[in-house]
What does this fold into?
Amino acid sequence: MSVIKNTTIYFSVSIIQSLISFLLLPVFTYFLTKAEFGLVSVVNSISALLAIFFIFGTQAVVSRLYFEYKDDEEKLKTFLGTVFLSKIIWNILLAAVLILGRNIIFPIIAKDISFYPFLLIAIGIGFFSVIFKIYQTLQQTEQKSKSYAVDQILYLVLNNGITVLLLVVFDMKAEGVILGTLVADFIMTVLVFFRLRKRMILKIDRDILKESFSYSWPIFFHALFGWGLASVNRLILNNLVSIETVGVYTIGFTIAGVVNMITVALNHSYTPWFYSQMKKEKRDNGNIVRFAEFIILIYSILSLCISLFSPEVIYLFINKGYVQAWKVIPFISFGYVFNGLYFFFINIFNYTKKAVKYVPLYSLCCSLINIGLNYVLIPQYGMIGSAIATMISMFVLSLTTCIGSKQFIDVGFKYKRMISLILLPFLMSLFVFIDFDLNFWVVLIIKIIYVLVCILILLLVNRKQFGGSIAHQIDNLKVYLHGIKGDNKNSK
It folds into this structure.
């Protein structure tokens, strides 16, 4: 299946996921106070942190080492059995440590959050969610995008359906929201083992386990430090400001997260294609570079639109108490553009086995920068300071990984060129901070005209790279996409 078809499916799933998340925001903000919504956000951040310890880099192990065993059915069954069985054993041991050591561990990361029921549920989410995540990685690696999409939609229906039921019908407030996620994760875990029962041999091969560990531990630290870039902000806001502020920040974070959804979806499809291109004796690096630059421009235009229209979206669809959330959206959304840029560079590290061990160093450095900037900027600028810290940290991450990747494989990425595709749209997005003392609909019309002018300017500025007119832009994109599709077929 071509990268284009996979990308379309992953993109569609991401759109559905983002749409459901957005449509549920009015429900959550209606039935939950800002403090309760902030509590849910803090608990979700903690469960995401715990999930990193539970999964311990196994997703990367599956996506990379699968290709070492795929041609031998028995070895592949042993590999999958080793992965999933060792994961269950590890999860049981880790959950026991977290429960027994709760009075020592959680006061450090979860200020004023009660262990029962909230942190206990967070442990359960971390335990069960990773099994489904590993299985979804296997589906992506095997390029089974349709199966991936069906399962992801099933999970979304279960998770959100149970959550709304517990929140609206049973009035379980914050507890119901996070409990819904736990129930959905448990159901998907049972489904995963039912499906894989004939595809794996439940035994642990020491050689496979050793190889998996040698590859997974750098990814674990990378994911851990990545959490320090993406999720630690809410814990710091809770400690330095208030849990109500976390609730408002989370609304902005969720809306800006549309950009992240799309960058992750594209990267899921791009990674196998990139690996197949790198294995060719005669590869066209220009193909990879042009793809990256065009996609970064698309990310930037998307972030520009989301940033400019976020006040109107919040005003029309979300509780008015959260209206200030728009102020963090330009910084977080363009931070995710830098994160999308980073994906192109980090794939070089993941492809080169000797390079993967250096990945955590970059994420550690930028995680520390993010944490430090949060403590410096939040006291002065509140949640906007936290959003700025995120954008700066992700910019540094993309820059340092770009420089580092060239030490192993120089694909030909031109960072200055790629940054220019982000900087101008970001500056354009700051137009949202202009306070128009005009009618709501007049302001909306002004913004629509402004966005169209901005897009035209961006197309004109980049006409040499992608074409001299809008028609040429579209024609070049079609030709380029057909080229990728053909390359992908030939690489099979």
The first helix runs from residue 3 to 31. The CA atoms of residues 124 and 304 lie 38 Å apart. Confidence is low (pLDDT under 50) at residues 483-492.
